């Protein structure tokens, strides 16, 4: 029997989805899509090797061309991309696994280098810095979205979710975390709007909730997850007023019976004064549904967190890059290979 038994208990997410264990492979961008941002056979093999996770969440996948902020990130808006993803979902399902697609638009972290279009965002405020992996490109000042652009975006998220289901995914995770488009609406640092999408917690939550509701209408709440970063730890500055936005948003999410809510953070030992502690503790207090914890979890801290009810599922990121057989190693109490960023050069 494994030393970390709580990781290996099945999890009934809802009437249509039961996970074989509580280990989630966190979404991990690898920048390895082929021409046309189409997933490759190597990506299918990579995900297939990790299919013994209770749930895999795919690397973030762009919903339309102007959502791209890194080279060779896959898309889910062309027929060829849908067919490429079908190879991935087939590989995971052949091994008995489950996989959600993470729906992504980077907002102001996009670059016209990729799509030929000026980036869009809630407000015309540039992020200072250069595009990762393309250090000669500085971020551009985005165009503030008009209300009709927002309606189009909501529809594009819903269409991308439908495309994911067509490609065989078990569900979708809306990427509302890590300073990308949806998160840019949720924080005062990046949202300076004075219309129905800015100024107040209700208005600043509006875009996130419209995307959630459109995706739920298209593919079902039981197949929709959401990732959120209340702590604003990356790509933006935290503001104590953000807390009220998340209090409001989480209360509304409690009414929606999503498959799960997933924390977005690299290190969950960080504490935030304005959240009253760790981001996972804040979400646990305010969200009543299934919560995925993440951020520097080891087999020990993950199983303890589950046993103590801090979260219901444990997402593992970097260790899954270093250990395709992470689940087996933990179950058999074998040592894990340490992650190193040089491992990003190859899909193993
Ligand atoms: C190389 C790399 C790529 C990542 N890509 C994504 C991504 O596409 N979407 C996302 O929500 N988070 C992404 N993350 C964050 C991870 O999902 C996870 O939250 C983070 O790595 C902390 O978990 P860990 O300590 O187990 O690695 C990425 C992290 C790394 C290291």
Tell me about this structure.
The chain is α/β, with parallel strands linked by helices and 348 residues long. The protein has a single domain, classed as Aldolase class I (TIM Barrel), CATH 3.20.20. 32% of the residues lie in helices and 18% in strands. It contains 11 helices and 16 strands. The strands form 5 sheets. The chain has an 8-stranded parallel β-barrel with strand order 3-4-5-10-11-12-15-16, surrounded by 5 helices. A hairpin with a 2-residue loop joins strand 1 and strand 2 (17-19). Helix 1 packs parallel to helix 2 and helix 6 (201-219) packs parallel to helix 7 (242-253). The longest helix is centred in the middle third of the chain and has 20 residues, at 147-166. The radius of gyration is 19 Å and the shape is globular. It starts with 10 loop residues before the first strand and ends in a 17-residue tail after the last helix. The mean pLDDT is 97. Bound molecules: flavin mononucleotide. Flavin mononucleotide is lined by residues 26-29, 59-60, 102, 175, 177-178, 227, 264, 266, 294-297, 316-319, 344. Residues 6-333 form the NADH:flavin oxidoreductase/NADH oxidase N-terminal domain. Keywords: Oxidoreductase. Belongs to the NADH:flavin oxidoreductase/NADH oxidase family. This is Alkene reductase. One of its GO terms (cellular component) is cytosol.
């Amino acid at each position: 029997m494994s030393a970390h038994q709580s990781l290996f208990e099945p999890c009934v997410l809802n009437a249509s989805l039961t996970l074989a264990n509580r280990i989630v492979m966190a979404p991990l961008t690898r920048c390895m899509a082929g021409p046309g941002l189409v997933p490759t056979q190597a990506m299918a093999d990579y995900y297939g090797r990790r299919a013994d996770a209770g749930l895999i969440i795919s690397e973030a996948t762009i919903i339309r061309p102007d959502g791209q902020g890194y080279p060779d990130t896959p898309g889910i808006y062309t027929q060829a991309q849908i067919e490429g993803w079908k190879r991935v979902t087939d590989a995971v399902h052949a091994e008995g696994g489950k996989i959600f697609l993470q729906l992504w638009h980077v907002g102001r972290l996009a670059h016209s280098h990729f799509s030929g279009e000026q980036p869009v965002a809630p407000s015309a405020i540039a992020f200072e810095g250069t595009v990762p992996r393309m250090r000669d490109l500085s971020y551009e000042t985005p165009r503030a979205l008009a209300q009709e652009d927002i309606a189009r975006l909501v529809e594009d998220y819903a269409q991308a979710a439908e495309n994911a289901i067509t490609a065989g995914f078990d569900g979708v995770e809306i990427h509302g975390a890590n300073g990308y488009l949806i998160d840019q609406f949720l924080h005062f640092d990046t949202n300076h709007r004075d219309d129905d999408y800015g100024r107040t917690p209700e208005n600043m939550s509006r875009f996130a909730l419209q995307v959630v509701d459109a995706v739920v209408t298209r593919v079902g709440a039981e197949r929709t997850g959401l990732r959120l970063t209340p702590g604003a730890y990356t790509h933006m500055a935290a503001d104590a007023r953000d807390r009220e936005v998340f209090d409001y948003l989480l209360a509304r999410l409690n009414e929606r019976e999503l498959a799960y809510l997933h924390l977005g953070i690299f290190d969950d030992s960080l504490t935030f004064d304005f959240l009253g502690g760790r981001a996972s503790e804040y979400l646990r207090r305010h969200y009543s549904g299934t919560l995925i914890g993440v951020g520097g979890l080891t087999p020990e801290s993950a199983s303890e967190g589950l046993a103590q009810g801090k979260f219901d599922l444990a997402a593992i990121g970097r260790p899954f890059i270093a250990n395709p057989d992470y689940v087996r190693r933990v179950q058999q109490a074998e040592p894990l290979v340490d992650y190193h960023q040089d491992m990003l050069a190859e899909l193993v």
